[in-house]
């Protein structure tokens, strides 16, 4: 599942108790953490992560509730969290022995000092973590959240915090502007993919335009008669009226052709949305379609292989889709 906390999705670290050695904002950088030995700044070795100072006054009592550092992340896409990754890459002698994660659902855009006093729910109980390790942890709650709070005991460094889940869009925005049924920020997600050798298919559903080839989906070169494809669980049941297939940045490796199909339900029959159509390299293609059939899933086939920056499926949400979105918004089920 996609990382709902990514900076590139609009995530932000809004406050932390301490960040003397390395900024808490590094927690949500999309790229993996890097390390360059013997690179020292004014406060010591430079780390690509969040690192707090050593706690000294009064020593360290394991059960002392004050012996903790915290960072609060506003999710770029509010939603249901299925798992977190507390990544301590490169932190060996300075990682926190134990961590916990809480989450909250906050209305509007309050300042950081108000979010601190939110109604926090523990989604990851305090538990040990290993140094220089990804540390993936499942989350059982199916509530919808807008913020997460990482607590490290008593101090130390964490390279990245990944918050994997599915977005839940606010239904009040359904009738204000075009609605992309395939947008990750609206709750769409990749459900299957034939190949992702060079780039994740989640990139297809990211907001905004790709800024490089590395921000798209790219497959390895096929040496057979088949083709590559990706399947998408849409944000809600809807009717698609505009398809956008963007091959920006893909010059010598764009697909020659692509097609899009849809179906209503996992057991439904696939029907054609966009017939097999030639594509140009480094081009934002937009196609109007006239298929008045509701769908909950889409499949894009590229022929035979290659890379694509974005896939957009603009349309309207059906009444059943609206009811589902309202239920997910109110109850957080996903």
Structural commentary:
- The chain folds into two domains: 7-166, Jelly Rolls; 171-321, Galactose-binding domain-like (Jelly Rolls).
- 5% of the residues lie in helices and 40% in strands.
- The protein contains two helices and 21 strands.
- The strands form five sheets. Strands 12, 13, 15, 16, 17, 18, 19 and 21 form an eight-stranded antiparallel β-sheet that branches.
Distance between the termini: 12 Å
Question: Which topology of the largest domain does CATH recognise?
Answer: Jelly Rolls
Instruction: Give the integer mean of the pLDDT values.
Output: 93
- How many domains in all? 2
CATH class of the largest domain: Mainly Beta
Annotation field: number of helices: 2
Give the helix/strand class.
mainly beta
Low-pLDDT runs of 5+ residues are none
CATH superfamily caption of the largest domain: Galactose-binding domain-like
Share of helix among residues?
Answer: under 10%
| Overall CATH architecture of the largest domain | Sandwich
Shape: globular
CA-atom Rg in angstroms: 22 Å
């Amino acid at each position: 599942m996609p990382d709902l906390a990514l900076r590139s999705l609009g995530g932000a670290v809004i406050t932390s108790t301490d960040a003397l050695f390395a900024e808490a904002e590094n927690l949500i950088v999309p790229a993996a953490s890097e390390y360059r030995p013997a690179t020292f700044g004014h406060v010591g070795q430079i780390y690509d992560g969040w690192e707090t100072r050593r706690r000294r006054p009064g020593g360290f009592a394991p059960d002392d509730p004050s012996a903790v550092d915290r960072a609060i992340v506003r999710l770029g896409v509010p939603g249901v969290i299925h798992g977190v990754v507390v990544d301590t890459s490169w932190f060996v002698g300075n990682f926190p022995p134990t961590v916990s994660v809480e989450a909250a659902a906050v209305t509007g855009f309050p300042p950081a000092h108000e979010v601190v006093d939110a109604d926090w729910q523990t989604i990851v109980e305090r538990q040990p973590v290993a140094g220089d390790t990804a540390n993936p942890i499942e989350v059982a709650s199916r509530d919808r959240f807008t913020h997460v709070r990482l607590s490290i005991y008593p101090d130390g460094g964490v390279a990245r915090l990944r918050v994997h889940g599915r977005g839940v869009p606010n239904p009040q925005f359904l009738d204000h502007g075009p609605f992309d049924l395939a947008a990750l920020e609206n709750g769409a997600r990749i459900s299957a993919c034939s190949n992702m050798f060079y780039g994740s298919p989640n990139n297809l559903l990211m907001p905004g335009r790709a800024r490089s080839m590395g921000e798209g989906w790219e497959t390895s070169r096929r040496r057979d008669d088949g083709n590559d494809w990706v399947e998408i669980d849409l944000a809600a049941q809807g009717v698609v009226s505009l398809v956008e297939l963007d091959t920006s940045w893909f010059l010598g490796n764009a697909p020659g052709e692509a097609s899009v199909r849809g179906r209503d339900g996992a057991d439904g029959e696939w029907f054609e949305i966009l017939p097999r159509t030639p594509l140009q390299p480094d081009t934002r293609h937009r196609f109007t379609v006239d298929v008045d059939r509701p769908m909950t899933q889409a499949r894009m086939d590229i022929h035979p292989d290659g890379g694509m920056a974005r896939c957009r499926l603009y349309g309207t949400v059906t009444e059943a889709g609206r009811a589902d979105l309202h239920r997910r918004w109110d109850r957080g089920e996903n």
